[in-house]
Amino acid sequence: MTPDELLDVFHRRIRLPDADAIPGWKQEHEGLVHRSYVEGPDGAGFVEAPRGLGDDPDAVIAREVAFFRERGLPFEWKTYAYDEPADLGERLVRAGFVPGDPETLILGEVDRILERPSALPSKVRLREADGPQDYQRIAELTHSLWDSGLARIVEQLQGEARMFPDRLSVFLVEDALKGAQGSAVSAAWVRFHPGTGFASLWGGGTLPQWRRQGLYSALLVHRARLAKDRGYEFLRVDASEDSRPILQKLGLHAVTRTTPYEWTP
Question: How many CA atoms lie within 13 A of 135 on its CB side?
Fold first, then answer.
């Protein structure tokens, strides 16, 4: 499929029905806005508008800010480069949002990834996360790479895996000599979106001293094989500039850019 065809399928199957909302979060569609959130001391929200914002975009943005301000929740408004209005990012900034780092939406067919051979070096092993200790090691890895917050990663991934085991699989790569006694050297997970044909790939962070040894590619192929076994046709990745060239080299396509805009009460 061409990049434009892939983006069209993604838009219709994932964005319009809001099929990739975080499991367990409350989902609401109010007018043109798709909103999901979880309340509580560590609560947060997520908003996007795949159909545009109509004739008065600023009023729609103001309603969402008021909704989350009333609940005292921070939230992210995720934008895609083709969203309407074309100046959505500027409007969000004027409303008090702070833009995050842009990413590239990467899409592709599972079979393209599986055409590529991939092998891990013998000094590491790849396995599925099993129990609190593994999730803690993954949290320590991701926090060291992206300052993502230890407790949030442990609670989110472990809780999601416990509640929705058929929709999330988490993997780590470890030093074969140290095993569970050492740090995770790389980790990644895959979320499955039933009824859409899409599996989403997340994580993939690797300790600096273990990079350029094929760990990222091996994790990618491993998750693609699992997706194939479960009957999924397409892969989706929100890629950083570090991972984008690897993904494209492996046969996936850059189809558009995404930018998160953060609002904090």
Answer: 19
Angle at 95 between CA 90 and CA 101, to 5 degrees: 55
Residue 35: alpha-carbon gap to chain centroid = 17
Give the closest residue to 127 by CA, choosing from 210, 187, 201.
187
Q: 20-45 pLDDT, tens per residue?
A: 888 889 999 999 999 999 998 889 99
Q: How far apart are CA 6 and CA 109, in angstroms?
A: 9
The helix or strand, by DSSP H or E, that contains position 169, with its residue range, turns out to be: strand 168-175
Other residues' Cβ atoms within 10 Å of the Cβ of residue 153: 21
Q: What is the pTM of this model?
A: 0.89
Q: At a CB cut-off of 8 Å and minimum separation 6, what does 73 contact?
A: 37, 39, 43, 44, 45, 265
**pLDDT over threshold 80, residue 153:** no
Read off φ and ψ for residue 23, nearest 5 degrees: -55, 135
pLDDT of residue 115: 85
Q: How far apart are CA 134 and CA 190, in angstroms?
A: 16
Residue 62: band (very low, low, confident or very high) from pLDDT cuts 50, 70, 90: very high
Q: Looking at residue 60, what is its pLDDT?
A: 97
Identify the sign of the CA torsion 144, 147, 149, 155.
negative
